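ingest -> validate -> predict -> emit
validate: passed (alphabet ok, no gaps, 216 aa)
predict: started
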Amino acid sequence: MVEWITSDAPVPYDVAVAEMEARADAIARGDAGEAVWLLEHPPLYTAGTSAKREDLKDPDRFPVYDTRRGGQYTYHGPGQRVAYVMLDLNTRSRDIRRYVEQLEAWVIAALAEFNVKGEIRDGRVGVWVTRPEKPPLPDGSQREDKIAAIGVRIRKWVSFHGISLNVEPDLSHFDGIVPCGIADHGVTSLVDLGLPVTMHDADLALKRSFAEVFGS
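emit:
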């Protein structure tokens, strides 16, 4: 069974990474079981392995952490549920593409509990929602906002890092970066979509939908 860990107070990023890597190593050795860690961070930016320095528009606004997860620049902060997923892919499936698809399906299933249709797009990592109420883009296409980011790392076929779901963060904090390198679309949250969702509500949806996608 996967252990669910919830931290009530914001966890400093470097502390979280150290604890997450230690747990992943213990899983690889067979000394610990799989876990999902639900937490929030203080306001900060992280740079994935594909980050472009020009996408960091305001480097002095919040602390910036280089991280070895995949992806580009991401914001983390209060009101955003971060789920660090530490699973043993040796016993599940040694298929990284399938694992990322499962993370996407997990977020989409959780959003569906709030009647939000999350979607994925080729060439754009993460989960998106359409915004037909907003003016179209200059090329006439419909605007879409990102509601969840995904960034993973695999070591010894144990996963860590994971997803971040925007419940009620300060969306202006995303202005200091080009989120995930995508400038043509915006960022949203469950509350920004007009839904009075609490962090507890989001946690319950994530736990229920995790079982649907990953089993236990």
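The helical segments are 13-29, 96-112, 199-214.
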